[in-house]
Amino acid sequence: MAKALASGDARLMHKAGLEADLARLERLAAAHYDDQFAVKRAIDRAEREIAGAERQIPLIEADIASRQPTKGDAFVLRRDKGDVSEREKAGSWLLSQVRLAAKNGEAGIWNLGRIGGFAVMCEAGQGRRMRGEKRAVDVTLFVEARSGRIEIAVEDDTKGLGLTSRLEHALLRIDDALRDAIRMREEAQHRLPSYRARLGLPFAEQAMLDEKRAELKALEDDLAATATDEDPAHDDTEDREKEEEMAA
Question: For residue 41, is it within any domain?
Fold first, then answer.
């Protein structure tokens, strides 16, 4: 090798060029396999979105079909102890039940009545906050629909009329949920063909990469053989110098 360096062996320049080419091709290969992994994940995600939307759409449509009007005088909170048709009174009573559940600190779930054809539920469960020596409960108010629960925010300053307004808006937003589910399904279906077309594509430069690897291996073997020939134990020049010294 030293002799090759000293003589400006062109093989070393060629080796440097091969190594640079290989580094570039290997970076491209790594990027290709990363892209294939990303495509596989994108396909899985799109298929999950389609399946999820197809499960939800008929449930949301059933919710819409069973929804009863609450606009104007049609509003009513139906409960076991009697219907309430005034929005403020209905909301105030619901708030009282939520706050009573929080005060009692007992876990449970209760059906408070129905609005617009949907059950209004109150659920209490152990929370993370401490109240004195006891752990406070977290209380959630939600509408129970076929497509899933619709939670209704309740703050300390929430008023009765404000709560019924939130409940009515939540029922109207079921239409938005249907549009969102349909849009999600359509967008995922639109993405899938292009993803599937890319999945499994071979690395375009694989043949060139294999060729460069083989060429570099052959060149390294050749250089190694040259290095062996330059070993001092087999250097003819050194042998001649020793013979001349002995003759002198």
Answer: no
Question: Are 230 and 3 spatial neighbours (Cβ–Cβ below 8 Å)?
Answer: yes
Q: Is 162 left (phi over 0), alpha (psi -120 to 50) or beta?
A: alpha
Name, in order, each residue with C-beta under 8 angstroms of 138's C-beta and a sequence gap of 6 or more: 124, 125, 126, 127
Is 143 a domain residue? yes
The first and second tokens of residue 180, run together, are 């969102």
Contact 153, 143 (CB under 8 A): no
Q: Is residue 62 domain-resident?
A: no
* Cβ-based neighbours of 95, under 8 Å, separated by 6 or more: 154, 158, 159, 160, 163
Cβ(83)–Cβ(68) under 8 Å?
A: no
Could you give the CA distance from residue 211 to residue 206 in angstroms, rounded to a whole number?
Answer: 9
Q: List the domain range (segments joined by +) for residue 101.
A: 69-174
How many domains are contained in the chain?
1
Name the 3-class secondary structure at 224. helix
How do residues 137-185 score in pLDDT, each as one tens digit? 899 999 999 999 999 999 999 999 999 999 999 999 999 999 999 999 9
pTM to 2 decimal places? 0.74
In a domain, 199, yes or no: no
User: Residues in the chain, how many?
Assistant: 248
